[in-house]
């Protein structure tokens, strides 16, 4: 089935367009409170695009998601990989929520990280009130786990829910 999405590495020239899609109170309700100014938004993403500080053993992946036909910016996908741990996140414009774009993007991200980082396990965190995110993660094969069993996760804050998905899907016909 052809993808409805066009996903490309995030570049500085995308930041204003991405800001227009994501600087919305509904997006920030579950990720840090108030909507950042345009300058703060740009600075945060410029830091992400610069990559981890020297000497930090992490790989950062940042992608822009557009609608394949209209080329409208829908959101972004990101991941931080440390060893076999791939911590994933996604932000999509509220206007496109409920259309399956985040699910399709997350499936793409899993495949991309397997290609780029090899055999990794996928992790995500969310606030307990973010039921939409939890439902999406469950549909994508994640299971909620106690925070105590998780590796150190960059996005984890006390009280967050933690979700895990094994990196390699079971082989067809394999016992589960």
Automatic annotation (TrEMBL):
Top-level taxon in the UniProt lineage: Bacteria
Keyword Transcription: no
Name of the protein this chain belongs to: RimJ/RimL family protein N-acetyltransferase
GO MF terms held by the record: acyltransferase activity, transferring groups other than amino-acyl groups
Pfam families: Acetyltransf_3
Segments forming domain N-acetyltransferase: 4-142
Alphabetized UniProt keyword annotations: Transferase
InterPro entries: Acyl_CoA_acyltransferase (IPR016181), GNAT_dom (IPR000182), N-acetyltransferase (IPR051531)
UniProt entry tagged with the keyword Transferase: yes
